[in-house]
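In this section we walk through a basic example: taking a raw amino acid sequence and producing a predicted 3D structure, encoded as C-alpha cells. The instruction is simple. Fold the sequence below.
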Amino acid sequence: MTVLVLIVAAGGAAWYGTHADSHRSGSHITIDRQVWVSGLDGRVTAMANIPNGGFVIAGYQKTGWAVATDAQGNLLWKYIAPFDENLGLGTPASTHSEFYGVVPLPNGNVLLCGQKTTEKLDTVGLITILSNTGLLLEERQVLANKDRDYSVPTFGGKIYGCSRWDDGVALIGGKLDNSEKPPAWAIKLDGSAEKKWEKLLVAGSQWTRPILVIDRDLVLAHVEVKPTTTEFTIEKWNETGEAVAKSAPITGKYPYLFRSFQSEHEIGLMAYFDVSNTYQLHVLGERLEQVGRPKQVRVNNFDLQEGFGYRLPDHSLLLFGRSATQSGDRGSIERIGKDGEYLDLLVFPQIL
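The resulting C-alpha cell sequence is shown next.
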C-alpha cells in the first residue's frame, strides 16, 4: 500500500510517497518518491480525497491555504486566503485566518472550515468554498444564531472541525471566551453548504476534530478536563443530530477514531493514557459499549498528538505523528499490529 504524506517546511512542502508492505522482511515502511510543492509554509491541519484519486490539503500560517494534487502528488491548484496588511493583530504569531478541515462537496466544489479575524479583531467561525479548480466562490462567517450569546460573540468563535456527513457536512464549533465552561455547537449543512439545523453541545467540554461516519450516523468525541484526570466520551448521532448512543467515560487524551478491526459496525479508538505514558487501543460496539479490555500500544519514540492514521488491509494501523530527534521533532509514521504490537517506524528526513 502506498500513502502520500505532506510535510511543510520553510517556503514549500514535500510530498513523500511511503510504501507499507506486510509481506516484506526488514523495514516495512520506505520512501519511494518525493514531490516539492512551492510557496507553502506553516502547518498542515486537514486532508481529504477527491474524486480524481488526488487530495486536497489545508493548513495555515499567517493566513489559511489549501492545495489540490493528483494521486501522484502533482499540484493541480493552490489557494491562499486574503491577507489584510492593514488589519492590526495582537502579536506576530497572530493569524488572519486558519483552516482546520476540508470537505469535498457532491457538486465538485471544496469546503474549508476554520476561523477568521475580523476588522473588529473578533474571531469568528469561517467557511470558504472553492471551485474544483481552486477559485474562491464564497466566504462566510458562521455562528449558531438561536442564542444571542452565539450571534453576538464578545470574544468570538471558531469551527474546530468539519466532516462529510450523509448528503452534507457536519460542523463542530464554539464560542471563544474566558469562562470556565465556554459554549459549543454543531451545525449540519446540506450538499450545497446551506444550514439544515444546529444544536448546542455540552458546555465546557473540548469537542475534538476526529469525526467518523458509520451507517449515516456521526460518531465524535468530547473531552472533559477534571482536577485530577482527563476523560472523554464518544457519542453517536443520527441524521437529525439526536444522540442515539453514548459511551461510558474513558480516561485518556487525544482520542483518534477509526473503523474497528473486528466489524464494520464497531469503532476503533486510540487514546493517550497519562498513568503509563502510553497509548491504548479500545474497541467499542455498535452501542458504544466497550468490547474486551483495552490493549496497550507499544510505540517507539512516537507521539500521535494531533496526528491521524489508516487501517491497512491486514488490520495493522499506519499512524502519522512525530518523533523526537537530536535536531528536533520530525514527522514520522509508525506501524502497529492489530493487537497493539510495534512493527515499524519511519522518521522523515530533514528538509533543508
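Looking at the output, two observations stand out. DSSP finds one helix and 28 strands in the chain. Residues 8-12, 22-27, 146-156 have pLDDT under 50 and may be disordered. In the next section we compare this with other chains.
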